[in-house]
Each structure stands twice: as structure tokens, then as C-alpha cells.
Amino acid sequence: MAPMLNGSLAQRLLFFLLSCVAVARADEQWVTYKDCRYLPNAANDGDSFHVRAAGKEYIFRLYFVDTPETDMSVPDRVAEQAKYFHVAIQSALQIGLEAERFTRKKLSRPFSIRTRKQDARGRSRRPRYFAFVQTETGDLGEKLIANGLARAYGAASVAPGMITPEGEWRKLRQLERKAKKQRIGGWGVGAGRLHLRATAEPSASTDCSNAVIHSNAARKSERQLPGLSAKLEISNAGKETCRSIPGLESPQTHSE
After folding, report:
1. How does pLDDT run across 51-68, given as a tens digit for each residue?
2. If you ran DSSP here, which 8-state letter would residue 217 be given?
3. Contact 144, 65 (CB under 8 A)
4. Are the CB atoms for 32 and 48 separated by under 8 Å?
5. CATH number for the domain running over 26-242
6. Residue 112: helix, strand or coil by DSSP?
């Protein structure tokens, strides 16, 4: 019988494997769209919305963050989000609606999109892609977190020249803890503080598409938030190694 691994060693081994399986090629094509416009649509919410970029209509979904749903079309997901914010179902929907309004306002002026058109698997017939969104005042995902309207959760990516997403996860978790301590946004909905905003937001120079850039980086990885169910995009090199690891599956489908 093979010797049993102790808990600490097993955890380190699993962390190492999870760090390796999501490696993809750094030369995959990334596109930056500037002067983008927000397009009103009934399906828009805080982290997923229609955009006109380079003369075409797209649906983009933010990397790194997840805002609550705005209706009960995905009840299990709403229940999960309500549990995360420690609120009732109806309050979670209120947070989602506030996040949608926040995003709509932030994108009322031209903004930039950076994407490699990774499939975000929405429910619309139109393709939906993951993206980084940079407003004139900073990264949209970070601002949602800083104002208590989203959680640090979901798909992550590293554009060419970036080392890993770990630095951004740490930053988002810090912003989330601060919003929770200040009881703003979703963290204060029970006390009537849903509409309160952060006194200091992440600046335009620290968006997640630039925050962890390293000029000598040669690889990029994509992974879910550490500690959550690991739904990773696995490179061909890592498929055989990690096929038996529980929890590795396709990214969770999110409403448009």
C-alpha cells in the first residue's frame, strides 16, 4: 500500500498542480478596443453588458469579479450570492440592481476594453467574452469591489507581459475587506447603506490589466479564485496530470 500524504504535504501538492494546469500560451491574441460605448439592454447587469466597440456590438463579462443577479432566473446562483453577502434573497437582488446602475453610470462615458475573446458562456445567442474594462477613472471590476457591489470571484486571466493573477486577487480581497469594514454597498444593505460609496477608490493607474505587469514574463495563467471550486481552463500539457483532480470542470455558466 502506498504511504499516505500528510495534510500539509497534500495541500502543497494540490496547490502546485493547480498552479500548473492552467498555463496557456502567452502569444494568444489580445485585442484592445478604445472609445467603447455602453449599449442599453434588458439583460445587462453589473458584470456583464452589451458594448459597441470598433463598430460592432459585443457582450463582455468582467474578469475577476461577480456581481449579484438582478432577477431570479438563476435561483441557485442568487442563493449562493445572498449567502456570501449574508443577506436575504431579496436584498441580494437589490445589490445586483445597484451594481447594474453603478456600472451603467461608470460606462456612461467612453471606455476601453481588453480581451482575448475567451468564451464567457452567457445565455444569449450572441457570443459573450471575458474582458478587462478600463474607465476614465480606473478599472471597473476593482471599483465594484471597492464599493461593496461585487465579490472577488470568477474567471481570471493574465494578458501578455503579466506574471500571475495572484497580485490582483490579493488587491481585490483587500478592497473587499475594506468595503465590508466600512459597511458600504452590499455589506451595509441591512443598515440602509446600499447607496453609500467608498471614500477612496482604486485609481486609474492601478487597473487589473496593468497592476501585475512584468516586462519579462513569458507565460500567463487562468484560474478561479483560490479556495473556491477550481474550474480551470487546462492547457494540453496539463490535462493528463490533472484529469483525476476533483472539481476541474468547465467555467460556470453565468447569466448574460
Report:
1. 999 999 999 999 999 999
2. -
3. yes
4. no
5. 2.40.50.90
6. strand
